[in-house]
Amino acid sequence: MLSPKAEKLIEQYLHLPFEDILNVRCPYFINSRAKQRAQLRVLIGKGLPQEIVEEAKIISIQYHHGLFNCDGKCLISELTKTETDNPPEECIKKFLVDNGLGIDCSGFVSHVLREHFQETRKIDIANKFYFVPLKNYFRYLICWLRPIENMSVKKYASDQNTKKIESVKEISPGDLLIMLETGPQKNRNHIVLVTDNDGKIIKYAHARAWSMEGKYDHGVARGEIRIINPTESLLKQEWVEFGTVNENNETYLEAKNAKIFEVRRIKF
Hints:
By secondary structure, the protein is an alpha+beta fold. Helices cover 34% and strands 18% of the residues. The protein has a domain at 4-98. It has an eight-stranded antiparallel beta sheet with strand order 1-8-2-3-4-5-6-7. The model has no long low-confidence stretch (mean pLDDT 92).
C-alpha cells in the first residue's frame, strides 16, 4: 500500500476537512478550460485539501455567499433554510464547482506521491522532477518556484521522470497509469495512481469527471482492477469503479481509447 500519510491525504480529498460537514468529495477541476495563469495553485486545480477548504471560506465571506461566518464556521442552519431540497454537503459541493475549486488529475497524483516518497524514502519528488533544460532559464525558474503546478501528465509520461512497467505482476503502489490523447476528441491526457496490488486486485485513485455524473457529481474517486488473467495486459482485466465494469466504466474506456496507455514508475 501507499504510505499512511499518502493514504490519509487521499481520504482528505474524498472527504474534504470542513469542520462540521464530513462528506464533501473534492470536485474535479481542469484549468485548461479556465485558462488562468499565475494564480494561486488552489485556484488552478493544484491545491491541497486544506487549501481548498480555506479558499472556499474566503470566497464565501468575501462575496457574501452566506455559507461560512467570519470565523470560518459552516452555517448549516442557513444552508438548510436556503437549500431545502439539498443537504449541506451537496450545497458546498455545488459552491466549490461554481467557484472553480477542486483538483485536477496530475495535481492530485503529485500531492499524494509527494507525501508517499517523503514518508518512505525521505525525498521530495518535486525537487527531483525534470521539467526543462537549465539553459531555458526563465522557464526553469518558474518550474522550480511552482513545481506542483508544472508536474503535468506529459511530464510524468517522460522517460526523464518515469520508466515503463511491462508486466501486470510488477505493478506496485505508487505506479502510474498514463493515458495520452484520449476522450471523445482525443484531446485529453489523464493519470491514475496505483495505491495497492495484492496480486489479485490492483487498487487505484484519481481525480476525474465522468460524463454520466453531470456538472456537480464528479471528483476524486477510488477504483480497482481485478486480475483475471495475469499474463495479459491491464486492458484485458476487469476494471470496477462506482459499481460499473469495463465498457460501462469511463476510466476503463479512457484507457482503452487512449492513443498511448502505459504503466509507469517514478525513476528517483
